Automatic annotation (TrEMBL):
Belongs to the ABC transporter superfamily. It comes from Aliiroseovarius sediminilitoris. Coiled coil: none annotated. Residues 243-265 are annotated as: Disordered. One of its GO terms (cellular component) is plasma membrane. This is Amino acid ABC transporter ATP-binding protein, PAAT family. Keywords: ATP-binding, Cell membrane, Membrane, Nucleotide-binding, Transport. It is found in: Cell membrane.
Length: 265
């Protein structure tokens, strides 16, 4: 059975995600102070930076899990419609939010698998209940995605019976089964022991090679260097430096980035 082939529709015309001048505050705390991010189709963008610099917030804003105060977000060229005022602005259209969110699948640090469902049920749940897809077709796809991430033999076990690396791979299969336009990863390897980290890194690298559009928040500089087309270094809610990985890691300009990189070696 053919899985959806991300590389097939690799037109670079309209970016999947385009964020400009995004401002986000929690009460008096301004966490994003005017941030831009463009995820071209088939490209991988990595977000790096110290803890608290706003990486997760930016990812959550992209996925419309968070409101914002100012700035634009375009999904495949389509602007998010906002309502409210400058201090409290929400996406206006629930249907638009649902459509965009189901097209941007998120993978979290803590896997967030449903513990009362088997691995197969975890992967099938959203395509069946949220997208209303045919159950038998979803099951076939779910099994294929689980095989693709190397745990095709774990369909009928509970999440607790898997290692962290296997659980995260199941979470990636679950994200893929939504057949999204982009995958958003928030520190996908941070909760894993080093030896399990690599099995997840391998899956992410395969997805990059396939031409999947991805935005990856990571503390793993080697992963960022290996898979990214573009790397963004956030510092206190602003982009301090960005560029292709060769430049960013090879000849960082800003002192903050130099310090950050030497601290993560
Ligand atoms: P990172 O992912 O880079 O570590 P975050 O985006 O999680 O950073 O957080 C950026 C800042 O926003 C931090 O100071 C954090 O404490 C704050 N923050 C994040 N989420 C919330 C929230 N729900 N309410 C209040 N402050 C928050
Ligand atoms: Mg974070």
């Amino acid at each position: 059975m053919p899985l959806d082939n991300a590389a097939q529709n690799s037109s670079t015309a309209t970016p999947v995600i385009q964020i400009s001048d995004l401002h986000k505050s929690y009460g008096a705390l301004e966490v994003l102070k005017g941030v831009d991010l463009v995820a071209e189709r088939g490209h991988v963008v990595s977000l790096i930076g110290s803890s608290g610099s706003g990486k997760s917030t930016l990812l959550r804003c992209a996925n419309l899990l968070e409101d914002s105060q100012q700035g634009e977000i375009l999904f495949e060229g389509e602007p998010i419609k906002w309502r409210g005022h400058a201090l409290h602005r929400h996406p206006a259209d629930r249907a638009q939010v649902t459509r965009i969110r189901t097209n941007l699948s998120m993978v979290f640090q803590q896997f967030n698998l449903w513990s009362h469902m088997t691995i197969l049920q975890n992967v099938m749940e959203a395509p069946v209940t949220v997208l209303g897809r045919n159950k038998a077709e979803v099951e076939e796809k779910a099994r294929a995605y689980l095989a693709k991430v190397g745990i095709g033999d774990k369909c009928d076990v509970w999440p607790a019976q898997l290692s962290g690396g296997q659980q995260q791979r199941a979470a990636i299969a679950r994200a893929l089964c939504m057949e999204p336009k982009a995958l958003l990863f928030d520190e996908p390897t941070s909760a894993l022991d080093p030896e399990l980290e690599q099995e997840v890194v391998r899956v992410i690298k395969d997805l990059a090679t396939e031409g999947r559009t991805m935005v990856i928040v990571t503390h793993d500089m080697r992963l960022a260097a290996d898979v990214s087309d573009h790397v963004i270094f956030l510092h206190q809610g602003l982009i301090e430096e960005e560029g292709p990985p060769e430049t960013l890691f090879g000849s960082p300009k800003s002192e903050r980035l130099q310090q950050f990189l030497s601290a993560t070696q």
